[in-house]
Amino acid sequence: MSNPIVDWEKDAINHPSPKNNSIKTPDVILLLKAEEYAEKFIKTFSLDQNYDYQLPGAQLWGIEKDSTFSLIDEHPDVYDLLDKQLYDLSNYIGIIVHTTGWAAPLNSDGSIGDSPSQHTQRQRIVLAAAVTHQSAGSALAFANNKEIIIDPGSASGSLAEALQRFWKKNF
């Protein structure tokens, strides 16, 4: 979910949504752990050669029973998206929040320094944070090397808390 080194600043560059607002995965896998859905989402959508790691905001996706992802809503601010309203999520087994931002190295003591977007070693990232009935987790990928980092639900911070509030409010 939230990674302490990520700054959720949004860019004004437009990124098109999939034309049919649905991503079909080639195989049907049910009851994955949340971080596995997040990783699958990034591999399916975000590692495309044309992906620019600069969404104009955050997207809320539903995870359907057949392992497809359907776009539910978008908003320029991830926290406003999660606090916006109640959604009918009865047809979904979970949700994914998809957004982009900056990441930068932690300080030597593990603390967060200045804003990652201002750091000299900043990197663009894409994040997919997932919550299902069974678990929460996330995956993120770096624009410069496409390495995917998986978090099996140990994240903390404001985005993790917002996702948990959203889940309780809507399910």
Task: Characterise this structure.
This protein starts with 5 loop residues before the first strand and ends with a helix. The protein is 19% helix and 30% strand. The protein is an alpha+beta fold and 171 residues long. The protein has helices spanning 34-46, 78-83, 158-170, and strands spanning 6-7, 22-23, 58-64, 69-75, 92-103, 123-132, 136-142, 148-151. Strands 1, 2, 3, 4, 5, 6, 7 and 8 form an 8-stranded antiparallel β-sheet that branches. The protein has 3 helices and 8 strands; from the N terminus they run ββαββαββββα. The protein has one domain (6-102, 112-170).
**Average pLDDT over all residues:** 78
Query: Compute the gyration radius: what is it?
Result: 15 Å
DSSP summary: helix tally:
3
Work out the oligomeric state of the chains in this entry.
single chain
Biggest β-sheet description:
8 strands, antiparallel
Apparent shape:
globular
Whole-number total of structural domains: 1
Low-confidence stretches: 1-30
Count every beta strand, where a strand is a DSSP E run of 2 or more residues. 8
Range of strand content: 25-35%
Helix coverage percent: 10-25%
Distance between the termini: 18 Å
H/E element order: EEHEEHEEEEH
